[in-house]
Amino acid sequence: MNGFGVLLTKQKRYDEAESLFEKVLKGRRQKLYDDHPDTLETKNDLGVLYKEQGRYDEAEPLLRQAVEGRTERLGPQHPHTLASVKNLIELYEAWGKPKEAEKWRARLTHKEQADE
After folding, report:
1. Which residues contact 19 (CB under 8 A, 6 or more apart)?
2. Percent of the chain beyond pLDDT 70?
3. pLDDT in tens, 66-81
4. Of 4, 20, 109, 112, which residue is least crowded by CB atoms under 10 Å?
5. What is the DSSP code (8-state) at residue 106?
6. Which of 65, 63, 67, 66 is CA-nearest to residue 92?
7. How far, in Å, CA of 70 to CA of 58, rounded?
8. pTM of the model
9. Longest alpha-carbon distance in the chain
10. Which domains are present in the chain?
11. CA-CA-CA-CA dihedral for 91, 10, 44, 97, to nearest 10
């Protein structure tokens, strides 16, 4: 279901995506735990949705939690961790916070920055 929420986000069907992500996040928190990789995936994807809508204050904590949790659970170089870092960088760039974006960009290697 999380993947369907991503599709809805890409289709700019934001209300439907948000409703779906909220249900998935609630279920994953109840059945798994807050820092389970699947729960972190939903936090990341809901954060991306909020970023796309310009809801930066709501996106930031979710994307930070995704980065921190994925770093701890999966490691700093795992593809999912790197994707979350890149999403956080994109948030700060869209939000007009270039210093924050650069701080997070510094965590990426030159190859990872080129892949951005």
Report:
1. none
2. 93
3. 999 999 999 999 999 9
4. 109
5. T
6. 63
7. 19
8. 0.90
9. 39
10. 2-115 (1.25.40.10)
11. 0
